[in-house]
């Protein structure tokens, strides 16, 4: 009997970009590597969706639809191109109404995609029903997902094979059309035995011709062993990537998987020599991009506090920007309790960001002193049902702080149609009313409008764009100082206090606190997390009401509105668009 050929999808150009570069990669740079990939015999490629949709508008100054068109033209008509969608969020970070969910599938089919992988972080099957039906309706293959992870120590009640089989049976009973089923572990934390038992049990439930897929990340160093367990349990396909993005926060490497299958009854049936040529082309294409060191590391502690590879680098990049990277280990530790008390939603976008933001607040503000609005809405039921009920104490705190009751209905039922709203925005700004533009506004909101108006800012991290480090210039006419010295230096407009020992060795470097904001009598609207100021929605002198959105911030891969703590008049605005702020820094003052 011959070996079973295991299918695989090359995720280098979507999940690889998201997991290593925060999804910020320009199409012109990577497209030559796509052709090399096809020349290597790879016929199933992940080409967009997930964070790679918004990131092109937000950070690359490109249209994701144009990128997909160019991708399809590059690979020809026969290569399968797949994208990622988040259930009723599709490719946005907030929930989308039914008309936008339908438009998502219609547009992705129009722009050359073959398959949409569709998941819900809460494993609430209701959130997959309408989105899955529209994907199939518009002629795309629907790969429906059951989201996996490992629970923090001491937790039980979900995320075991029995839980996953219950969700699989619910999917089948709901009669959602699908072409394949994927078990997706975005954090790479599920232990291999559980992976094996899950795939083995799933194979017994579905028909013999049902394609079962497994997806993981190598963040915890478990990727190859998880893939082997899935294959031995009955998976027909796995996700793999190429150097330089493979491993670490991304998927296991294609060449490593070929090696792991040697001597078994399975094969990838691909020529490793051709893969080497494709790898060389890809490494050449990416040589100018900045690789965060944590993207290539094994982080064993994520097995205790599951942080997805696709979110880890986005979070650490933001913490670098705000000078808080030293808090990362504490935040990861705090995530364990946040997951345990939050109802066990899978740690994958957007829930992984809810977890990380709440853990950050617990570290910087004190445990549960402040509930992150997105985390609070999740435990209150506004995103769907969590796998198990959230801790009643946390639900009570969320209800009190957000001034909202528990919600048990269908999230889609409380969302207003999106097409009329987006159409109105386009007309008000004298922009063409096309399906593409409607979807861009609906999914990207203010940044989508900025892009369509030609105001997008390119923010891609390349080595050639790095500013040279400030170097001290010696003054030969003056003798070098002796003994310990203290200096204040400025790098990239930021002041640092440097302590130098008598030997000349630098003992300590610490950022200098910014000058205090001019005192203004009133109530300060404070930044809830570190992040960037995206939009200021008011002016000095304007009257505002309690809970009125006043500032839009981007923090830890999420956009969020900062709302007024009280009614009154804006008497001072302390920040500008583009500023990076710290937690509790005053944004404006209301009197």
Question: What's the number of structural domains?
Answer: 4
What is the overall shape? globular
CATH superfamily placement of the largest domain = Aldolase class I
Distance between the termini: 80 Å
Helical proportion, percent range: 25-40%
For the largest sheet, list the strands in their spatial order: 2-9-8-7-6-5-4-3
How many beta-strand elements?
A: 21
User: How large is the share of residues in beta strands?
Assistant: 15-25%
Structure commentary:
This protein has 18 helices and 21 strands. The protein has 591 residues and is an alpha/beta fold. The protein has four domains: 9-297, TIM Barrel; 302-414, Orthogonal Bundle (Cyclin A, domain 1), CATH 1.10.472; 467-511, no CATH class; 523-590, RNA polymerase II/Efflux pump adaptor protein, barrel-sandwich hybrid domain (OB fold (Dihydrolipoamide Acetyltransferase, E2P), Beta Barrel), CATH 2.40.50.100. It has an eight-stranded parallel beta sheet. The chain has a four-stranded antiparallel beta sheet with strand order 14-21-19-16, with no helix packed on it. It has a four-stranded antiparallel beta sheet with strand order 18-17-15-20. Helix 8 (192-205) packs parallel to helix 9 and helix 17 (419-428) crosses helix 18 (435-452). The longest helix has 18 residues, at 435-452.
What order do the helices and strands come in, and which of them pair?
Elements: E1 4-5, E2 7-10, H1 15-21, H2 27-39, E3 44-49, H3 51-58, H4 64-75, E4 80-85, H5 98-110, E5 115-118, H6 126-137, E6 141-147, H7 161-173, E7 180-185, H8 192-205, E8 211-216, H9 223-233, E9 237-240, H10 254-260, E10 266-267, H11 272-285, H12 309-321, H13 328-341, H14 351-365, H15 373-380, H16 392-402, H17 419-428, H18 435-452, E11 485-491, E12 494-500, E13 506-511, E14 523-526, E15 531-536, E16 543-544, E17 549-555, E18 558-563, E19 568-573, E20 580-581, E21 586-590
Parallel strand pairs: 1-10, 2-9, 3-4, 4-5, 5-6, 6-7, 7-8, 8-9
Antiparallel strand pairs: 11-12, 12-13, 14-21, 15-17, 15-20, 16-19, 17-18, 19-21
Helix pairs in contact: 1-12, 2-4, 2-11, 5-6, 5-18, 7-8, 8-9, 13-14, 15-16, 17-18
